[in-house]
């Protein structure tokens, strides 16, 4: 049973940036990228370190692609930021105010996700001092929502918000601060699960500070945090509703950043509305909002007709590899429990019915 009309709402994903994504080196280490000439020496150092980083990661993976405790013991030490971050910062300080310096600082914030702590703070100081009114900072703000680095990221976003007179940067700082708070609240609800995952992966042994960071998030005042988050989102809608966030094109791990404004991007009003809608309607324990759609056989589907029956909604599209890998298992589960009234409802983003079928 598949619906062909996607729900008209924004569904934000909660991601824990500490668990390493499986990223392939192919293409990332190519030389033919648009790197500024003055940054090529540093980029070459990063390329060399990335090769070592990828080789160590691949050697530390199990046959089925899972991380091992050995990887957690070396990943921080081999991180290009840990090895060459001071070179990036030194370049940015010497060439303060230039686009090339901004690229170096964006790389530190983007790649490091708050680590190493002193390097991150220094990069943030440079960004606030020299680029607070540059619209590129509205994209940099989007890299500051990792709840495990809550205090340092909150400090940067708050300082930037007060230092900037650019409404787009102000809106981005406020919105991503609200996102940071929301991620911290979601992490609070999942701390036992997250701790178990870290423990099983060997992360707590390889990076002992992760346990402390989880405890820091656990001690945050959830009531105050939720109130501040909601107030920020409402203020954004009132003050910056028609503004659009900045975007960036770059290759993971390289210095070919290009900042721009995406005309097709949602406004901050839409982003704030989407997050508020998710908080109120799409979180664990919420009542799924009603919607209707058209099935591939032409019949009308209404979610309200499924009330009281176990139902799994899967949002997907043709070409989503992870989704398509799940289809056989979902079909098997549906067949196994169909007599109990269980159904899987696929809500597809594709425009053509043939594709969905």
Architecture overview:
The chain is mainly α and 357 residues long. It is globular. Mean pLDDT is 88; it is low at 1-22. The chain contains 14 helices and seven strands. Helices cover 55% and strands 8% of the residues. Strands 1-7-6 form a three-stranded parallel β-sheet, with helices on one face. The chain has a two-stranded antiparallel ribbon with strand order 2-3. The chain starts with a strand and ends with a helix. Helix 8 runs antiparallel to helix 11 (222-240). It has helices at residues 40-60, 69-78, 80-94, 99-112, 117-131, 137-140, 150-163, 167-201, 203-206, 209-218, 222-240, 268-281, 321-337, 353-356, and strands spanning 2-3, 246-249, 258-261, 292-294, 300-302, 311-316, 343-348.
What are the main properties of this structure?
two-stranded antiparallel sheet, 8% strand, globular, 357 residues, 3-stranded parallel sheet, 55% helix, mainly alpha
| Strand element count | 7
First-to-last CA distance: 10 Å
How confident is the prediction overall: mean pLDDT?
88
Number of distinct helices:
14
Residues in helices, as a percent range:
40-55%
Strand order of the largest sheet: 1-7-6
- Our Rg estimate from Cα atoms comes to 22 Å
Q: DSSP strand (E) fraction?
A: 5-15%
Structural class: mainly alpha
Topology:
Layout: E1 2-3, H1 40-60, H2 69-78, H3 80-94, H4 99-112, H5 117-131, H6 137-140, H7 150-163, H8 167-201, H9 203-206, H10 209-218, H11 222-240, E2 246-249, E3 258-261, H12 268-281, E4 292-294, E5 300-302, E6 311-316, H13 321-337, E7 343-348, H14 353-356
Parallel strand pairs: 1-7, 6-7
Antiparallel strand pairs: 2-3, 4-5
Helix pairs in contact: 1-2, 1-3, 3-4, 3-5, 4-5, 5-7, 7-8, 8-10, 8-11, 8-12, 11-12
């Amino acid at each position: 049973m598949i619906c062909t009309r996607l729900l008209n709402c924004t569904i934000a994903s909660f991601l824990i940036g500490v668990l390493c994504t499986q990223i392939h080196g192919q293409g990332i280490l190519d030389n033919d990228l648009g790197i500024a000439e003055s940054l090529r020496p540093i980029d070459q150092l990063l390329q060399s370190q990335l090769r070592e980083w990828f080789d160590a990661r691949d050697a530390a993976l199990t046959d089925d692609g899972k991380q091992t405790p050995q990887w957690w013991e070396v990943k921080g030490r081999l991180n290009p930021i840990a090895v060459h971050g001071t070179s990036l910062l030194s370049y940015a300080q010497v060439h303060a105010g230039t686009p090339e310096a901004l690229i170096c600082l964006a790389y530190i914030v983007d790649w490091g996700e708050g680590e190493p702590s002193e390097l991150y703070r220094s990069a943030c100081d440079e960004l606030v001092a020299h680029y607070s009114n540059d619209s590129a900072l509205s994209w940099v703000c989007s890299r500051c929502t990792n709840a495990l680095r809550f205090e340092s990221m909150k400090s940067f976003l708050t300082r930037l918000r007060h230092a900037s007179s650019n409404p787009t940067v102000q809106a981005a700082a406020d919105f991503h601060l609200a996102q940071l708070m929301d991620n911290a609240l979601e992490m609070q609800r999942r701390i036992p699960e997250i701790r178990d995952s870290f423990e099983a992966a060997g992360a707590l042994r390889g990076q002992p500070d992760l346990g402390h960071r989880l405890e820091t998030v656990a001690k945050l005042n959830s009531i105050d945090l939720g109130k501040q988050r909601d107030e920020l989102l409402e203020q954004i809608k009132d003050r910056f509703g028609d503004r659009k966030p900045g975007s960036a094109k770059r290759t993971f791990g390289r210095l070919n950043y290009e900042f721009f404004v995406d005309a097709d991007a949602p406004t901050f009003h839409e982003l704030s509305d989407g997050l508020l809608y998710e908080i109120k309607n799409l979180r664990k324990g919420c009542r799924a909002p009603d919607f209707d759609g058209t099935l591939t056989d032409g019949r009308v589907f209404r979610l309200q007709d499924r009330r009281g029956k176990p139902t799994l909604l899967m949002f997907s599209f043709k070409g989503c590899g992870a989704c398509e890998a799940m289809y056989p298992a979902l079909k098997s589960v549906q067949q196994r429990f169909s007599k109990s009234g269980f159904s899987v409802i696929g809500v597809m983003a594709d425009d053509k019915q043939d594709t969905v079928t």
